[in-house]
Amino acid sequence: MLQIGSIQLPSPVVLAALSGYSDWPMRALARKMGAPYTVHEVMIERFVNNLKDRERTRRFLKVADTDHPVGAQLMGSHPAEFAEAARRLVDAGFDVVDINFGCPMKKLRGQCRGGLHLGQPNIALQIVQSVRDALPQRIPVTVKMRRGLDDSSESTDNFFQILEGAIASGVAAVTIHGRTVAQKYVGRSNWNFLKMVRDAFPHQTLLGSGDLFTAHDCVRMLRETGVNGVTAARGAIGNPWIFQQTQALLRGNALPAAPTVFEQRDMIREHMRLAADVYPAEQASRQLRKFGIRYAMWHPEAEKVRNAFIDVQNPEQWHHTVTQWYSEDRPGNYPEWKEGENMSDSETCECS
User: Fold this and answer.
1) Which end of the chain is more exposed for a tag (fewer CB within 10 A), N or C?
2) How far from 352 is each of 260, 273, 275, CA to CA, in Å?
3) Residues facing 38 on adjacent strands
4) Taking a C-beta distance cutoff of 8 angstroms, is the pair 185, 218 a contact?
């Protein structure tokens, strides 16, 4: 069990917020495969406040009946803007508001966002307090953090100042990514840091993040660090099966067989069907191309299928590629993750 405020979850493995990825279709598939909780891709606070009820932007606030519980993640610079955006997200139907202090983006127009707030604890805590004060107590507020701006002692001190202040403000859970902001996605995530925080705050709900690409990774982080839950992020792109697989391992069962080619095909087609509900046809095929590149890793001819998805430019090419490579059922393959093959921040911002 994993508890986030008043929300009880039957599994400790949840879907993180991923900029450009964890939209409604990805979240729906994750839920279908066993994710008990998902988080919408990160949104800038001013963007939320300026959203109009228009067809092309309505997807950003889409919450279906089957989504619950679902979180929304906010990133930005201004505490007052955070409060207004948080209220709007709750009015739209989101069950949790997550504050992003983890994205390793650069300053924009001289303003700090995401992980850069780890260098200014007072502003970070103003943001947390403004969101907590703006929402009913029944709505959990959570925070995502990296372990600091860099490896300096000052960064570590700032991390703990923000963590302690956030807990005092009443946050329900804190997700900790084991890399620094300076690291971006280079090098290994420091799981020992997660264990240190767990030991220092034994009664706080803590979730771990970083280098969770397989079900075995998720189980290993839970057991090695003692965190209450883990957030599957980049490892869940083109891999909604990770939630089902991790639950099997946690029950003491063997790792399930990799999805067959037909099971992969069915998932890909379902993903495209869901995407067509919220995107125009051309945009849906562009959005699905980056997922297809990751789905391809499960195929017995992974490199050829990956190259085929890279070449997709429109819906017709998308359907042709799926028909061409997924018309014969064969056993699937578990992807082999190797050092240096992980996606970089130029491909996606793992904001939770």
Assistant:
1) N
2) 30, 26, 22
3) 15, 70
4) no
**CA 274 – CA 271 distance, rounded (Å):** 5
Distance between CA atoms of residues 268 and 284, nearest Å = 12
Beta strand ranges found along 105-186 (DSSP E): 141-146, 173-177
Cα 259 vs. chain centroid, distance in angstroms?
A: 22
- Preceding amide of 140 cis, omega within 30: no
The structure tokens 């279709």 sit at 25
**How would DSSP label each residue in 67-98?**
G-SEEEEEE-S-HHHHHHHHHHHHHHT-SEEE
User: What backbone torsions phi and psi does residue 74 show, to the nearest 5 degrees?
Assistant: -115, 140
Q: Do 94 and 70 meet the contact criterion of CB atoms below 8 Å apart?
A: yes
Q: What is the CB-side half-sphere exposure of residue 240 using CA atoms within 13 A?
A: 26
Residues with a catalytic annotation lie at 103
Rounded Cα distance, 14 and 17, in Å:
10
Cα–Cα dist 294/139, whole Å: 34
**Residues 263, 266, 272, 274, Cα dihedral to 10°:** -100
Q: Does pLDDT of 65 surpass 70?
A: yes
CATH class entry, domain 2-250: alpha beta
Question: What share of the chain in percent tops pLDDT 70?
Answer: 93
Question: Whole-angstrom Cα distance, residue 315 to residue 319?
Answer: 6
Q: Mapping DSSP to helix (H, G, I), strand (E, B) and coil, where does residue 260 land?
A: coil
CB-CB contact of 146 with 350 (8 Å): no
- Which letter does DSSP use for residue 107 in this model? P
- pLDDT value at position 338? 56
Is the full-model pTM beyond 0.85?
Answer: yes
Q: Among all chains, which residue has been given the structure tokens 């925070």? A: 143
In the chain, where the domains are located: 2-250, 261-325
% of the chain beyond a pLDDT of 90: 77
Burial class (CB within 10 angstroms; exposed 0-12, middle 13-18, buried 19+) of 248: middle
